Amino acid sequence: MAIATRTVHPEGRAATAAGTAMDDVASQFIAANQTAIELAVALMLGALIGIERGWVAREQKSGERIAGIRTHALVGLLGGIAALLTEALVAWAFPLLFLAVAAIGLVAWRARVTEHRDYSITGLIGLLLTFCFGAIAVAIDLALATACAVITAVILDNKREIHGLLNKLQAHELDAGLKLLMITVVMLPLLPNQGMGPGAVLNPYEIWWMVVLIAAISFVGYFAIRVGGPEKGILFTGLFAGLSSSTALTLHFARQSRRTPELDALLSAGILLACGTMFPRILIYAAVIHPALLPRLLLPTLVMGALLYLPALLIWRRHRLAARVERPTPIQNPLELRTALLFGALLALIMLLGEWLREWLGQAGIYLLAAASGLADVDAITLSLTRMSLERIDAPTAVLGIVIAAAVNNLVKAGLAAGFGTPRTGWRVGGPMLASLAAGLALAWGL
C-alpha cells in the first residue's frame, strides 16, 4: 500500500520557524511587561470615560469642570496602582485610596452644587467606577475591565436617549418588564431541575424556562409594535404582532374591516402576515430546545409561512393606500404572572396527556392531542412536542404534530376573520390558510 508523503521545502520550514520565533518574542515581551501593559490599559480606560465626560462639559471654562479627560485617566491609573499596592504591600491600600477618591469627589460636587444647583451624582459614580476599572484591569481581568468601561461610557453618553425612553415608558410596560425579570432571575433558579410525575416527564425547571421563553418573545413583540408606531401601517403591525398575539390582531383587524370596508384588503394582508409570523416562532423554539429537530421542521414551516406571506404581499401591492389604521392593542398583557402560571399549567397538562396518549394510542394519540391543543394555542403544544422529541417520541411524529397544531390554529383564526370581518376578508384570509394547511400537512406526512 502506498503511503502518501508531503514534501516540506526549506523555505517553508524557515518561514514557520521565523513565525514561531516572533510569537515567542512577543509572548516573552508581554510576560516581561505585563504590569506595565495592565497599567497602560487602566490609564486608557480612564481616558475613554474622561473623553465622554469632557465632551459633555466642553463648553465650560477651564477649572469649572470637576473631572475631565485628565482626571479620569489619572483616576484609572490610580486604581491600577492601588491594586498593585494592595497585592504587594498592605491589604488596606485599595479601600483607603478608594475612600480618598470618593471624599475628594464629594467635596468637589458639594462646592459645585452651591453654585449650579445640580444634584446629579452620575459624574461622581462614573469617577468611582473609573477607579474600580483600573483596579480590575490590573488585578482581575483586562477584558472584563474594558467591557465594563465601554458600557459605562455608552450609558453616560446616551443620557438624553435613556431619559427619553423613560418618559415614553408606561406604567403597565414597566410592570411587565419587572415581572419578566421576576419569573426569570427570581423564580427560575429556585425550581428543581429533575424529572417528576409519570415517566418523569415533568421537569419544573424546564417547564418554567419555556414559560420564560414565551414571555420574552411576547415582550419583544409588544415593543416592536410600540416602537414602530402607527405610521408604519398595517404591514409592519401585522408582521410584528405575530410575535405577540396573532389571534388578538386577527380579531381586531376583522372587526376593523367591518368599520372601514375600504381597508379590508389591507387588513386581510395584515392578518396573513401575523399568522405567518407564527412559523418563525416555531423554528425559534425548536432551535433553542432541540436543534436536531430543526432540519425536519424547516421545510414544512417555511412553506406554510411562505404561503401566507406571499398572498399578503400581493394583496398589499394591489391595494396599498396612504391611509393608516390604528395599531391593535393587545387584549391582555402577555407578562401577567397569572397568564404565565396558566401557561405553565397548560404545558404540564399537555406533557402528561402526551405521555398517556403515547402509551395508550401511540402516534395517533399525539396527533389527537396536537389538534385539540391547536384550537386554543400553538406555543404550548410546540414546546411540549419539541421537549418530548428529545427522548419519548421520534422526530417525524413531533414534526407532524406541530404542523397539525399550527394548521388547526390558523383555521381557527380564519374562522375569526370570516365571522367578525367582511365576507371579502374571510375569503382573502381563508384561501391562503387552506393552501398553507394542505401543503404543510403533505410535507410533514412525507417526512
Automatic annotation (TrEMBL):
It comes from Halomonas campaniensis. It holds the Pfam family MgtC. This is Uncharacterized membrane protein (DUF4010 family). The keyword Membrane applies. Residues 39-163 form the MgtC/SapB/SrpB/YhiD N-terminal domain. It comes from the Bacteria. Keywords: Membrane, Transmembrane, Transmembrane helix. Residues 212-421 form the DUF4010 domain. The chain crosses the membrane at residues 67-86, 92-111, 123-156, 176-195, 207-227, 233-254, 266-288, 294-316, 337-354, 366-386, 398-420, 426-445. Coiled coil: none annotated.
